[in-house]
Every structure is written in C-alpha cells, then in structure tokens.
Amino acid sequence: MVARFAFAAAILTPVLGFGYLIQITYTADQCFRTASFGGCANLRTNLPGMLGAAPLQLAAPFAVVLIITALAFGAWRVSRVDRDAHRAAICAAGHAMLVAPLTLIIGPVLVAPTLLLVASTLLISGAKPRDVAGALAIGTVLVIGAFAATLAAIALWGARFGPVPLGAQPMWLYVGLATALGIAAGCLAAGRRGTPRELVRSLTLAYAGFGAGAVAASVALIPVMYPNGRLVGLGLGGVWTTAWTLPAADLVAGVVVWRWGGQFTWRAAFAATGFCAVAFVLVAVATVAVATRIVAGDMTPPIPLLPSTSTSD
C-alpha cells in the first residue's frame, strides 16, 4: 500500500503539473530599444507562442514541476526499495514546499499527489492506516480553517480600516506558505518519531508562529499605516516598513512557539526558526517567479463575507 501511494503520486505529479502548464495562458516580457527610445511590452500567449517569443521565461514553472516530479519518484523508490522513513519524509517535505508556488497560483491541481506522499510517509514510519487517516482528516480541517480565518480577517480588516496594505493576495500567500512549512515539518517529524500526530502538531505550531507574528506586526503597523483610522499611502517607505516589521515579528514568535509549544531547547528553537525563515523566503521567491509568467487572475477567492466587503482588491 505504501509503495502504491507513492507511485500514484509520482505518476500524478507530472501528469497534472505539465498537463496544466501546457494549456494555460502565459505572460511574455518583450523589451525593445531603438536609437531614440526603448521599452517593454507584455504579451499574453499560449505555450507554443511562449516557446517562440520567450522560451527562457518558461524555466521557473517547468523547473518547479520537474523538481517535484523527481521528489515524488524519489519517495516512490525509497518506499519500494529502501523503506527508509527519514528519506521518504525528506522527499515528501520537499514536494510539499515546492508544490506551494503552483498550488497557490493555479489552484489545488497538485494537492492530491502531495496528500498521497504525506500518507505514504506516515505509513512507512510504522503508523496504522486508521491513525494516518485520522491525522490527514484533522490536518485538512486545520488547513481549511486557517484559510477561512484568513478570508474573515481580510474582510474584517477591510470593514474597519479600509484597504489592506499591499493588497489581500500577500496575506493569502503568507498563510499558504506557512501551511507548506507546517506540512513539511510534520512529514520530517513523523518520519523521525513514527507517529502521524506529528503532522497535526507541526501544522498547529506553524499556524501559531506565523499567526502570532502577523498579529504582532499588524498591531505595530496600525499607528504608522493608519494614523487617522484609514490607510495612508507611505509609498516605498511603507512597503519597506511592512517588509521589515513582519519578518522581525515572525522570528520572535517562531522562537517562542518552538521553545514553549514545541518543547525545543532555546538553541534548537533558534535553529528551527532560522531554517523556517530561509525556507519561507526561498519558496516565496519561487512563488513570485512562477506568478510573473502565469496568467492566473486573483489568487484570493472573491467571497463577500460582510456587507459591502469582498476579499478581492
């Protein structure tokens, strides 16, 4: 059963990933320069047009699918031949982290392979199928609840303060990348300790750390960004203020959560927080690289949660 789950994930990952990339619309940046002036134009085209106009700009989305395909096949080989829970967990964790850039932009097309790999990792660690099913069910409820709470927070913020700084999409991506980190950490912990409850525990800690950081940053930024109760445009300075305040709050919250919630030593808490910070930045960069090439529309669902409010900006 373990090898079958991993094999299904290995087959579905390229089929779903490349299948989607073949039929979607892309944005090609074409720059020109003459003797008197220059500029750039954005061309929306399909895959053949992109291959003809700017083939190198396809590198980011296709490289992500290639890497997650390799990780899925690596997990299948480990589960079929070596049955090494730790190595399987590494493959599943990497798959979950790199699926985030595509899932958050083009939709949940690659969620199924990730769930299959997570289930395979939990099973190969020695967990009972019933316990694995329970952990996946609880984890799914946590993830859906986190995104629902994000939509509610965006709507409530808009009703009270007006537009969200930098728009609602960064908040959506923030929660999505926190989810990927939680799943990745859960796979590694479950592979090491042999219990599927580590998946739920890691997800909870990820949401607690990133959530506490977001709340602390919001409280700190309100007097600066909303001095009169409404958003004041601070230009690039406001962007940099937000960009530095949120990571700083996340680092402090991460250390506290890993130390007290995760029962880590102070040294391990600092190390785990630093690792999560680096992983978060790398996946965020990958997400932006993919998003600049794919025409996907709004990443945040436009669901009105309060009268005269919506999650679309």
Q: In words, what does this structure look like?
A:
By secondary structure, the chain is mainly α. The protein has one domain (2-32, 44-291). It has 10 helices and 2 strands, in the order αββααααααααα. It has a two-stranded antiparallel sheet with strand order 1-2. A hairpin with a 4-residue loop joins strand 1 and strand 2. Helix 3 runs antiparallel to helix 4 (85-106) and helix 9 (235-261) packs across helix 10 (266-291). The protein is globular.
Query: Low-confidence stretches at least 5 residues in length (pLDDT < 50)?
Result: 305-313
Strand segment count: 2
Strand order of the largest sheet: 1-2
β content, as a range?
Answer: 5-15%
- Secondary-structure-based class equals mainly alpha
Give the N-to-C terminal Cα separation.
45 Å
Q: How many individual domains?
A: 1
The helix/strand series, from N terminus to C terminus, equals HEEHHHHHHHHH
Number of helices: 10
User: Tell me about the biggest sheet?
Assistant: 2 strands, antiparallel
